Amino acid sequence: MNVAKIGGSSLSTAELITAAIKIITERNYQAVVVSAPGKAHSDDVKVTDLLFQWFQKPNSKTIREKITQRYQEIISGLGIETVFDLDAELSVIQDRLPKEQKPDYALSRGEYLNAKIIASAMGQTFIDPMKYIVIKKDGTYKCDTEALKQDVGGSLVIMPGFYGSTSKGNVRTFSRGGSDITGAIVAAALGAQEYHNWTDVSGVYTADPRIVSDAKKIDLMTYREVRELGNLGTAVFHPDAIRPVKIAGIPTIIKNTREPNDPGTRIVNAIPFDTENYRVVTGIARTDQFLELRIEYLGMGNISGYTEKILRVLRKQGVSYAIKPESQDSMSLILSSSQLEGKLEDVLDTIRKKVPRDKLSLNFDLSLISIVGANMKNRPGISARVFETLADAGISVVASTQGGSEISITIVVDSDASNRALLILHKAFF
Asked: What tens digit of pLDDT does each residue of 132-145 get?
């Protein structure tokens, strides 16, 4: 018995939902977790964004009409107008919105309504994750496994993703894309054989296929590899969805609703690598919008707590670092430009007050490129090959680091050179 999650891009219209229902009925699922409808076309507004607008203006007829139109198109396309009372559902939501101090309830209704609609169309049982999943303030969770198992029983259930409850029984959401997390939690709780994550692509690729035209689909990879690649912009599902199924030893299969017979990408805990014949590099990922904060001070390495003082400044501002190359007398912090938006001057002023320095400088418009492969540690010379490839192309490396697990090498380059760096590295290894 397996558990599935179906993403919003595969549930954006009645036609796509019909195709998803066909997928569900042809497979042996215990539970299916669904997202809110994604964009029906390029100019469309996501339902979740409309619901956030409704939270801000709960008495707006215009916003309610837009939400009504979107769901009514789906309901009519599925032919369930007589069994699903959309107006009554929306009235319940509108009555509650003015009482909500946080947007979580409003944001969660996209998944809630879509799950109810799909359950009605299939004649299957709807269950609410609030009954089973408690989400803490720090984003961690606990699941009432026994209650969930009992309510699922031996029949198929349809469940909304993305949200659970607080310890006091209020709605609390995961971060965006959190339906993946719900699906993984349910799969682990039910002891599924596999967790099928249905989306609109056929798996994880060796690089972003929008940039690298000959990127190849990865048939088999480890959770550690996908985590490294996912952190750098190539995730096809939420990185926090890895932990529940990894701990439970349940494989995740990334599947494409538009090509349901494609085997997709299978993600497992470990692969018995053959160091002679198995691939060395699994994938190469790139992400943009970083800057380098460089601090130089002669004798920095002799001052106890020097680094900690700087990291404390960043932590108080809600800024994390991507990598942190350092030497005895200098330190580079590669930081997200978006996290620093509106905060940069405060961060710099506070650092100047907290620690002595000879020089403090900034380097903007940087990109991170990560070369990932669980088998890299068994092959010498991978780092040399990376740097030689870039040097031959005349691309300078601003900073670099190798992961402690030895399955990734991350380099920092100027954003202007990032596409070219990604292309030549992909060619070198694939």
From this structure: 999 999 889 999 99
* pLDDT over threshold 70, residue 32: yes
Q: Does domain 283-429 bear CATH number 3.50.50.60?
A: no
pLDDT for the residue numbered 235? 67
Question: Which pair of tokens denotes residue 139?
Answer: 């984003």
CATH 3.40.1160.10 intervals, the chain: 2-268
Question: Which residues fall within 8 angstroms of residue 29, CB to CB, at 6 or more apart?
Answer: 1, 2, 3, 4, 156, 196
Kindly give the interhelix angle for 104-122 and 86-96, rounded to the nearest 10 degrees: 160
- Residue 419 confidence (pLDDT): 95
Distance CA 120, CA 88 (A): 15
Fold of 2-268: Carbamate kinase (3.40.1160)
Give 175-230 pLDDT, tens digit per residue: 888 999 999 999 999 999 999 999 999 999 999 998 999 999 999 999 999 988 87
Rounded CA separation 123/84 (Å): 11
In the chain, residues under CATH classification 3.30.2130.10 are 283-429
d(CA 5, CA 192): 13
Residue 400 CA to residue 337 CA, distance in Å, equals: 18
Residue 92 structure tokens: 């319940």
Report d(CA 271, CA 291) in Å as an integer.
36
> Bridge-partner residues for 411, per DSSP?
369, 400
Rounded Cα–Cα distance for residues 366 and 412 (Å): 7
d(CA 46, CA 318): 27
Are the C-beta atoms of 373 and 280 separated by less than 8 Å?
A: yes
Instruction: With CA atoms as reference, report the closest residue to 133 among 90, 167, 99.
Output: 167
Instruction: Please state, in angstroms and rounded to a whole number, the distance separating the CA atoms of residues 196 and 251.
Output: 9
Beta-sheet pairing, 133-135 with 141-143: antiparallel
State the angle between helix axes of 418-429 and 382-392 in degrees (0 to 180), rounded to the nearest 10.
Answer: 130
Residues 6+ apart with CB under 8 A from 394: none
- Give one word for 366, left, alpha or beta, with left for phi > 0 and alpha for psi -120 to 50: beta
What tokens were used for 408?
């990734």
